[in-house]
Design the sequence.
């Protein structure tokens, strides 16, 4: 069995390796919380949430956000060290091989404000020797802050063929830039990937997510009740709390008790995913209720950014089906509504109702669509073959650039049985 792996981590400085968001870390010094209200002792464990130069923000379970200098943190697991090092190596080696790049997100949609992030998506092509050996080269390169994502040409083509929204929109945004003739060819033939399948991957997907958000919102409404009950009477077990929740919120609904139990499990799993609980268990939920303030952030899925993007996706799909081109830059009433959602000026239920209403036209748009039923697989296959052949041609010709004489060193295959970790 072979893979591209870090052979030995004994010489690695764990205080210097990159720390992507989500990395579990241990602090080597005492630090106060961001608001200065509490001292967090050395040895505290948390997850990285943001990085700004040498400053790293860590969410410490049971405490909240704390800022550290990079050298004051070490990743907890060897696998995370390997992942971070592999990602840094891939970014350094393969970004010069990018053939297409696009500015996406709110800046592409016309919804950015002064402090908006700049999100990039792109495509890179592997140099020929990277495709010829046993080692599996990266198919995705992601920047450490998560703002830039590049897919390998073959992976991008496969994602485009299944109408993946992130990949497909990349080819149509106003600020899309071909960095190489290979990328220019992909951009020239973008219509090959445009098909009725956007009905499902954009429109119906957004509608299903809107309904999940509505369910999550209903669950969040009950969260304060449950935590209050557990604070008032810590002796209650899961079944007792579920029975009370069923009586007060579900009444005579079918299988009310079973649904209430499921909600409680979803609650503590969700709070664990947000790093609010050290483990996903009802006991940890009870401890949180007794020891922590109940004034904490909404679950990530309930933030306005998610709701406004769902409405935009439905609008994009409807326009694409009817006209043959996607709606990327929004204007008029739709733009005003999206900005109202993004800035939190309308409640979640209103934004989800707008999405439901707009989705009512999807069936009519699909029935009258000008798009082909399926993407042009033959043309996509030809594009990929030509890109691979061009990579090989430049290598054999020793042409200048990252596909020829300036190619980054190809990875070596290693037997995992010889790994020292």
Sequence:
């Amino acid at each position: 069995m072979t893979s591209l792996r870090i052979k030995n981590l004994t010489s690695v400085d764990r205080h210097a390796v990159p720390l992507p968001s989500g990395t579990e870390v241990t602090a080597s010094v005492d630090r106060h919380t961001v608001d200065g209200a509490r001292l967090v002792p050395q040895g505290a464990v948390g997850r990285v949430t943001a990085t700004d130069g040498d400053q790293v923000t860590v969410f410490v379970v049971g405490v909240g956000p704390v800022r550290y200098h990079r050298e004051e943190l070490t990743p907890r697991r060897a696998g995370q060290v390997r992942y971070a090092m592999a990602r840094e190596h891939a970014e350094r080696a393969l970004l010069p091989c990018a053939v297409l790049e696009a500015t996406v997100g709110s800046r592409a949609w016309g919804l950015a404000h002064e402090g908006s992030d700049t999100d990039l998506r792109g495509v890179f092509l592997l140099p020929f020797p990277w495709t010829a050996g046993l080692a599996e080269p990266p198919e995705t390169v992601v920047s450490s802050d998560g703002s830039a994502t590049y897919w390998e040409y073959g992976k991008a083509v496969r994602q485009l063929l299944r109408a993946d929204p992130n990949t497909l929109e990349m080819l149509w945004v106003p600020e899309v830039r071909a960095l190489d003739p290979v990328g220019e060819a992909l951009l020239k033939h973008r219509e090959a990937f445009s098909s009725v399948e956007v009905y499902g991957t954009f429109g119906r997907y957004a509608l299903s997510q809107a309904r999940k958000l509505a369910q999550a919102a209903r669950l969040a409404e009950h969260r304060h009740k449950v935590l209050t009950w557990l604070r008032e009477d810590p002796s209650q077990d899961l079944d007792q709390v579920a029975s009370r929740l069923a009586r007060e919120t579900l009444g005579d609904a079918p299988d009310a008790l079973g649904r209430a139990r499921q909600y409680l499990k979803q609650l503590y799993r969700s709070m664990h995913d947000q790093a609010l609980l050290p483990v996903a268990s009802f006991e940890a939920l009870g401890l949180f209720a007794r020891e922590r303030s109940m004034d904490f952030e909404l679950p990530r899925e309930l933030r306005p950014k998610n709701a406004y993007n769902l409405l935009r996706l439905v609008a994009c799909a409807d326009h694409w089906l009817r006209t043959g081109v996607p709606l990327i830059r929004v204007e008029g009433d739709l733009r005003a509504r999206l900005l109202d959602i993004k800035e939190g000026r309308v409640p979640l239920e209103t934004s989800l109702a707008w999405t439901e209403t707009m989705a009512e036209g999807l069936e009519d748009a699909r029935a009258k669509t000008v798009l082909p039923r399926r993407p042009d697989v033959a043309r996509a296959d030809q594009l990929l073959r030509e890109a691979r052949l061009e990579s090989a041609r430049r290598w054999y010709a020793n042409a200048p650039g990252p596909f020829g004489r300036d190619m980054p060193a190809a990875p070596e295959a290693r037997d995992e049985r010889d790994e020292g970790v």
About this structure: The domain at 12-76 is CATH 2.30.30.40 (SH3 type barrels.). The first strand starts at residue 2 and ends at 3.
